[in-house]
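The authors assume throughout that readers already know how a fold can be written as discrete tokens. The format is easy to grasp once an entry is in front of the reader. For illustration, here is how one protein appears when written out as sequence plus structure tokens:
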Amino acid sequence: MRISTAQIYAQGVRSFGVQQTKLATLQEQISTGVRINKPSDDPVASARILELEQTVELNEQFQRNINMVEDRLYLEETTLNSLEGVIQRVRELTLQANNATQDLVSRQAIAFELDELQNQLISLSNTIDANGDYLFAGHQSKVQPFSQNITGSVSHVDFNGDQGQRMINISQSRQINTDTSGSDLFMKLPTAFALNETANTANVGTAQLAPAHVFDTDNYVAGTYQISFDTVSSVPDTQYSVVDASGVTVASGTYVDSTDIVFMGISTSVTGIPANGDSFTVSQGQYQDIFSIVSNLSQSLRNPASGTVSAGSYTFGSAITAFDYTLDSASFDVDGNSVLLNADYTDLQGITSDIQNQLDIAVGAGVYAVTHNGATVSIAQVTPGVASIAPVVNNFNGNVDGNGGVATAGSSVTPGGISVTDYSAGADISFDVDGFNVVLDADYSNLAGVTAEIQADLNGTAGAGVYSVTDDGINITISKVVTGAVSTAPVINNPGGAGGNQAEFTAAIPTNGIDAINTFADFTVGGISVNGTDDSSIHSYMAQAILDIDTGFNKLLEARTSIGGRLNSLQNQSEDNEAIIIATQKTLGVIRDTDLAEAISQLTLEQTTLEAAQAVFAKITSSSLFNFLR
């Protein structure tokens, strides 16, 4: 067969090219450390390498997710720790306020600190993470979850977030929650005194009802109450009434925007203009928010619920002066025993002696020790006796003499809550409003009956002018609408009569201990007005507040426990992910990486082969027919 010189050259060049390609591939594998640099190097292995690389990248993303969740959970844990400190301080202050040695001034100081702690609670509940997301807002992460608002006279905190919880993958088969529900943590604390407020869907006015709360645990009666408005009654003002589930009116009065509406130990407020027939319902609830608990606690220390008086420490006025203790007459009740101050006193000793003498001669009162320290009169029961049950007139506002007194328009307080016995008169009871006689001469089943009779008496009195008489279930308020002639003749106030269950009226609490107009002494128990509050009502409220605070504290502990469990899970999952990454990278290395010993040996072999081929080719190409013939 004839072989041309060109063919020999072409074949040799092709062989050299193939050999050089092998050398170049081996040199690249050695220099890069990677055996497969393109899919054509090994298609099957390339597909497997792609799968393994995706596994590594996915687990590395899981690791980044874990780091991000850890940062957020650590911030939540720090925030909850700060919240626990605030709640713990609230509890300490509540215990301090519950101490019988505290007076109104010291309790008001505690209330101011509670207000600051409330601000801290709101600030911490609105904590933002490094991404600008609110921790406790749910899916509404860019919306401030907790905002402080005022409806009527009630300040309250509203939740603007949602219940959503963001989940993030930390492995191929597992997700973890990055959030703590702000609604559950702050707004859903179970309590025995939770209340719900709902507006009638048929309301057409602009009135809004503020959140209601139990301010007087001793007189609270659980149930469903409806607040209704009447704008077309004969009285020129809008009237409201509160009825229970049986239709019994428990409170009524003239509606004033943003003033408190009080009934059955409950307080709320309405703002806006109600239309005729508009109504709201206040009923038992299940949950209360931590902000309301602290806010209501502060308010209760500033304005304690009404109560009765017993032996204790009494403070007279704001300073010891003859003016403070110059009075025509004033009376109060010690464990049911009447004490009447009916002379001019130049110092506290005169008051102390007078109280001691009257208690010494009171039948069945037991033995009392009455002392003073220059500012405070202390009344201690040494030997208990049989307490009297006959009510007495408590500090009626005006110039009181032995027969009775003169009252002026204002608020009269009926301590002890609403019951039939409070308003069942054994004999006629009369008192004077701006000189006009009002006679209570019937049995009343609730305060509304007393209110109605006073209104009727004033309406039927010539020259009295126009009066508006309302009540809120505890207070009767007498307001003069149109002025008329005023009489000055005094009338009998609460005579002895035959009955023990006579109605009892007390004057509104003066400011700073003294009614400067009528110059009668104001008496306080531990700094709290005798005719307003007794420590027992505060103790009852504080006891419930401590239970509610503990519930809130336990909620925080549960949340921290949950966060701790999630952080442990993240750490364990991070270790698992790292192990998967290492194992996958090891497999990937076996498939993809160059075996340097084998590659170098192969490179040497291929290089030797190339050199040998080149030498043979040189010999062949240098030969010719002439050389062969020679």
Summary: The chain has ten helices and 32 strands. The longest strand covers residues 376-384. Residues 316 and 597 are 104 Å apart (CA to CA).
